[in-house]
Amino acid sequence: MSQTYESPDLPSSPVSALSPAWRHVLDQPMGMRAELDRLRRHAPFYDATVDEIDGRRIRIGDHWLTDFASCNYLGLDLDQEIIEAVPEYLDRWGTHPSWSRLIASPRMYDDIEHTLAALLGAEDALLLPTITHIQLSVLPALVGKGALFVEVHAHQTAHDGAVVAAAHGAAVARFREDRLDRLERRLRTSPHPRVVCVDGVHSMTGNGPPLAELAALTRAHDALLYVDDAHGFGVVGERDPAASSPYGSRGNGIVRHLGETYDDLVLVGGFSKAYSSLLAFVACPTEVKEYLKSTAGPYVFSGPSPVASLATGLVGLRVNAERGDAIRARLHRLTSRFLDGLRGLGLFTLNASGFPIIEIPLVDAAQAEPLGRFLFERGIFASVVPFPVVPREQVGVRIQVTAANTNAEIDHLLAVLAEAVERFPLVSVPRARAGD
Fold first, then answer.
1. DSSP string, 12-26
2. Are 289 and 307 in contact (CB under 8 A)?
3. Helices (DSSP H) in 192-306: which residue ranges?
4. For position 74, what pLDDT does the model report?
5. How many Å apart are CA 101 and CA 240, to the nearest integer?
6. Distance CA 281, CA 228 (A)
7. pLDDT tens, 58-80?
8. Does the 33-77+324-433 domain belong in CATH 3.90.1150.10?
9. In sequence order, what DSSP letters do the residues of 69-98 get, joined into one string?
């Protein structure tokens, strides 16, 4: 499927000198973000305008590339059943219900929330537009003036939510999931409510948290465990001997995948990755859902998700029930093909889970831009991740595999990486681990 957009030939606006008011804004130091800003302005693999897509092939200007930067893990962005279902919903509901959810919501919201809660095995679910909205509103609403502990490697939006929580009077601290003894000491004396925030599947390593240990610890100290499963939802799910892949069945998230319950646990997830739709959710008890309807700003004040997003979410849930496990089995096969090839090249990755996020670090962080240009010139579009987006020792390239990729595309990527090994200081597997 090829989709092309032709830009209209519009007259250009005159460029004028900025006023002192604007200059005061732009003269502020960017600090550690200066390098990201430089890359955004000059590197072809940042802030790119995509002119055309054809499956997982994309055209940027005159360059056709294979897209390994997409988080549409299940390939539902290209699924014809979902695409063809959307017009019926647009005919019925229009393009956008511009009420805030406090005022009114289309019936699709209730349908999705009920279906989603049943899929997750949770008591209830609340839909909001994005996980960013949730981090900035639900997280502060839960903790109030209590204590919030955010894992150091949690997504940046969780740390942004912690800033909002601190501004509203919460005590905020960071912790490391490999030093839970320190977290326990702080939980003993912290004020209530207590909330501990972690990623479900880490957005760089593809690995999950020590969920059982965290859940036991938080329950022992009357704290809530808040799990951001942006990447895991839709990909991993409950384990079943008959499952078609190690990802498990049904794609119902990291909590079910790791065999935990929702007792004193809040699961946050989104449809924007596996389901390719602009929706996010909080899975929680119904009484907590009612509380959040009055205390979470986006429910009260924000516009809702577009009808097309609600439709793709609702139909996507149906597709997941009918074909999801087969799609996940294909995704696992493609990811395994890439990971096996990566090991064959002797390259190291922090990914120990087999999840379709594979980050390949560089020995020298300064080589991130040259590596990104090398990949781009050879037809590979991937996420080049610089410092300070990640620690210096994790600077490298992040590959995301989707079910819409092909064996040939995986093999082409591996061939390009085989060239890159000869030219760039990619981290190799230590010899002692080569047979792991």
1. PPPP-PPPHHHHHHH
2. no
3. 211-220, 254-257, 286-295, 297-301
4. 98
5. 37
6. 10
7. 999 999 999 999 999 999 999 99
8. yes
9. ----TT-GGG-HHHHHHHHHHHHHH-S---
Q: Tokens at residue 206, please?
A: 């593809």
Return phi, psi of residue 368, to 5°.
-60, -50
List the Cα angle 278/282/287 in 5-degree steps. 140
Measured distance CA(19)–CA(6) in Å, rounded: 34
Task: Measure the CA–CA gap between 266 and 258, rounded to whole angstroms.
Answer: 15
Compute the residue count for the chain. 436
Contacts for 261 with CB less than 8 Å, ≥ 6 apart: 215, 255
pLDDT exceeds cutoff 60 at 435: no
* Greatest Cα pair distance in the chain: 66
The answer to whether 141 and 168 are in contact (CB under 8 A) is: no
Q: In the numeric block, which tokens belong to residue 111?
A: 């349908």
pLDDT tens-digit readout, 333-392: 999 999 999 999 999 999 999 999 999 999 998 899 999 999 999 999 999 988 878 888
Tell me the C-alpha distance between 131 and 306, whole Å. 16
Give the containing element (helix H, strand E) for 133: helix 131-143
Inter-residue contact 272 to 279 (CB < 8 Å) = yes
Q: What is the reported pLDDT for 4?
A: 60
Q: Tell me where in the chain the CATH 3.90.1150.10 domain(s) lie.
A: 33-77+324-433
- At 162, phi and psi to the nearest 5? -65, -35
* pLDDT computed for residue 16 by the predictor: 78
Identity of the residue numbered 26:
L
pLDDT-derived band at 434 (thresholds 50, 70, 90) equals very low
- Report the alpha-carbon distance of residue 219 to residue 50 in Å, rounded: 47
Q: Report the 10 Å Cβ neighbour count for 365.
A: 19
What's the CA gap between 249 and 253, in Å, rounded? 10
Give how far Cα 405 sits from Cα of 234, 330, 411, Å.
Answer: 17, 10, 11
For residue 396, count other CB atoms closer than 10 A to its CB. Answer: 30
List every span in the chain annotated with CATH 3.40.640.10: 81-320
Q: How far apart are CA 219 and CA 227, in angstroms?
A: 14
**Which of 254, 256, 187, 253 shows the shortest CA–CA distance to 217?**
187
CATH architecture of 81-320: 3-Layer(aba) Sandwich (3.40)
Whole-prediction pTM value?
0.93
**Local structure of residue 426 (DSSP, 8 states):** B
φ, ψ of residue 358 in degrees (nearest 5): -130, 110
